[in-house]
Specification:
By secondary structure, the protein is α/β, with parallel strands linked by helices. The protein is built from ten helices and five strands; from the N terminus they run αβααβααβαααβαβα. The protein has a five-stranded parallel β-sheet, with helices on both faces. α3 crosses α10.
Length: 230
Amino acid sequence: MTGGYVWPMRRVLAFVFLLTACSPDIPQDGAILAIGDSVMAWNGDAGIPEATASALGRPVVDRSQSLARLTAENGLAGSLGFDITRQFVPGPWSWVIFTGGGNDIRDACATPAVDALRDELIDANLNGEIPALIRRIRATGAGVAFVGYYDGAAASPTGFTPCQPEFDIINARMTRYAATRPGVVFLDAAVAIDPDDAGNYDPDLIHPSPRGSVQIGQALAAAIRAAEGD
């Protein structure tokens, strides 16, 4: 997700350099890989991936990227990390955690076009881009934890407020999907974020604050521990 921020060209060029000059180090067995959009990427070293890894006592590699999408990314945009499906790299991961979908549907929310875009992510039969990526990751042996979007802050509407009904549908479908698939966890981040507490949100009222990221990360770690105990 994004609040509409446009990267300055110098930052884009710097990011291109980093991606072309460096490949991600894959740490020892048991590490966590994080992929996804800005909800996952927000707050840097104080983000959801870091909070999750800290609570589990495991290393983490964070490849998530603001503005990333699950669908329709290709060419240069995809190679720069804006395609969530291409952020995933096989490795000795214990879990891959990810977010995604908000940027795919944002411009169509509250319009007739949104149904098809939402169903492209996950439809009523539990098929789509999200399940396809989960199957691809699970084929490598890693567990998968998908984080569903929390409600927007009650303080004020944002550009994503019209999308909330679609997020609720996706979350309900993902609840059904994860319930019958071993090694797959779904966390509705609403369990960790109180929309009446603006301190859980970044000043843009879209992304999590550092405190919000920690709360989501700790809830995600608890869900992973529960799954590992099954």
